[in-house]
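[STRUCTURE TOKENS]
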Amino acid sequence: MIIPGVLARHEPAGPGIPLLFDLPHSGRAYPADFNPAPPELILRRAEDAYVDDLLVGVEARG
């Protein structure tokens, strides 16, 4: 299942166990209809920018 910029589900390359990685505040892509109250600079300060890069490739490990 994939919701671009929100959710991606990948099956493991081999045997695995169910494991969910939840990275709140780590997104850098905002939908066009997202209308935040604070200015963009303040919004960016609340992000955990690039923390999602720490998990790149984990689905291949099962």
Observations:
- The longest strand covers residues 2-3.
- The chain has a mean pLDDT of 80.
